[in-house]
Amino acid sequence: MASKLNPYLSFAGNAREAMEYYHGVFGGDLALNTYGESGAPAEAGNADNIMHAMLEGGNGFTLMASDVPPGMEHHPGTNISISLSGDDGDLLRGCWEKLSDGGTVAVPLEKQMWGDEFGACTDRFGISWMVNIGEPG
Hints:
Layout: E1 4-11, H1 15-26, E2 29-34, E3 50-56, E4 62-67, E5 80-86, H2 89-100, E6 104-111, E7 117-122, E8 128-133
Parallel strand pairs: 1-4, 5-8
Antiparallel strand pairs: 1-5, 2-3, 3-4, 6-7, 7-8
Protein name: VOC family protein
Domain Glyoxalase/fosfomycin resistance/dioxygenase: 5-131
InterPro entries: Glyas_Bleomycin-R_OHBP_Dase, Glyas_Fos-R_dOase_dom, PhnB-like
């Protein structure tokens, strides 16, 4: 997989509805994964909410989204991050180091429960970034 950069949208409980709408707009393949499917505790009350959605169009468009988990704030209008993903670990780790330098790390870049390395930070200019490094395939 080549590395790619794409928008990542956050929603307050209606990510499924939004992504199905965007699927109708852009076409392509839509994958939806819920918090419940990933083993989120039932008492969190978000088992049916979207932990990760990805819309990949045959035209090169990629859009990702999720519902914010309980306890995280949602601010419409500022609910977007930029996602860097792929399997070129050296490239993506280098981007992470530069983006997080002088910024704020929300999630350290490390192996996650889904098997990839993932990190989230806000750079020194206030832009939110997510980096996901998958296994070469």
